[in-house]
Amino acid sequence: MRHRLTDRQSEALETAYWSGFFEWPRESNGQEIAESLGVSQPTFNRHLRAAEPNQLTTLFEDE
Q1: Rg for the chain (alpha carbons), in Å?
Q2: pLDDT by residue for the chain (63 residues), tens digit each?
Q3: Which end of the chain, N or C, is surrounded by fewer C-beta atoms within 10 Å?
Q4: CA distance 2 to 29
């Protein structure tokens, strides 16, 4: 699946996952993750949102 992602998209998605961003309630927020990556929150959000369609396409195409 990672072959469809840029390095930054992969880093943002993996960091978000391991930081508990997708848990409910969230264990960390976008600002905290962005700071850990050394980028702004809008940049983190852009990388994350760009990665999602790629991962969903892979998930549903594999069925």
Answers
A1: 12
A2: 557 799 999 999 999 999 999 999 999 999 999 999 999 999 999 999 999 988 888 888 866
A3: C
A4: 23
**Type and span of the H or E element at 61:** helix 41-61
- Integer Cα distance of 4 and 41 in angstroms: 23
Its pTM surpasses 0.90: no
- Three-state DSSP class for residue 26: coil
Q: Are 48 and 12 in contact (CB under 8 A)?
A: yes
Q: Which two tokens stand for residue 33?
A: 């993750």
Q: How far is CA 1 from CA 8, 20, 29, 40, 49, in A?
A: 14, 20, 25, 26, 16
